[in-house]
Amino acid sequence: MTVLEATPIAAAKDAASKLADLAINGDGECSNAKPGMITDVKNLYQSKPDNRGKTTWVDKYPNDLEEAAENAETARYALLVRNVKCYDGRKKLQIDSVIVQSPLLKTVLGTVLKDYPGITTTLDRLTFKAPFQPFVHRWSKLVEALEAESDLETKTHLELFHRVLEAELRDDLKARDDFILNGVITYHTIWMIFEPGTVVFSVKDGQPCTVKFNNGNYQQTRCGNCYALGCQMVDWDGENFGLGNEQFSVWEFEGTMKITKLSAYPLEYHPNLNKSRTSSVREVTSLRS
Which of 3, 16, 45, 260, by CA, is between 20 and 30 Å from 245? Predict the structure, then answer.
């Protein structure tokens, strides 16, 4: 007779059942043990939400769990794509995240995303989450890497990755290009024009200034919603020059707005770009070094 190996869930259920029996019936050692002195693990499980959405911890093993989707089988694939339901009326599913498992892809992405904050492409588990900002910012570099790749297997993995992301980002990339062509942007897509490392033009204390953009995020404040830009700028304390941290805010607006009307925007869009570059060359050089 063939003995079937128990699945992880079946084994856990069996263990939970045995622990429950011990709790109810007890044995000589457990029932007489002092608090904290049983050399074992007691697992508790989150209960289903009640009619108020509240949960508690119980020792009954949940009977509605499914096997974990990621295992030795899925580890063999170059990419894992996690999908969630989409409610925007355009498609049934949208990508929540992409896990890159291909070592060939990781090597290429290390070049494509070089110096991009928060990205370490050598991680064993390299995960990118929607809306995939790094690839919206570095899309042209990804395309260039794909076109330049000479190794057949690496190119095949790159084509797969490009195909997956292009299908997901097609609308965003088209919208970004259309906004830039018309010199405008919307509040909710403003992040598209702020790639980390970009030199930004703004006004501080009534004076024009250029700063290096490090990161940005949407914030809710008592004064309203804004896109906050974390930047570095050349500062002077009366004796020495140095780099100081500075935050600029672009307050929420309706519809589209000209990029040059924003309170802070990438220097490349400045109407007098050459003049601005000349007048702030020291700042820009310091920021980029």
Answer: 260
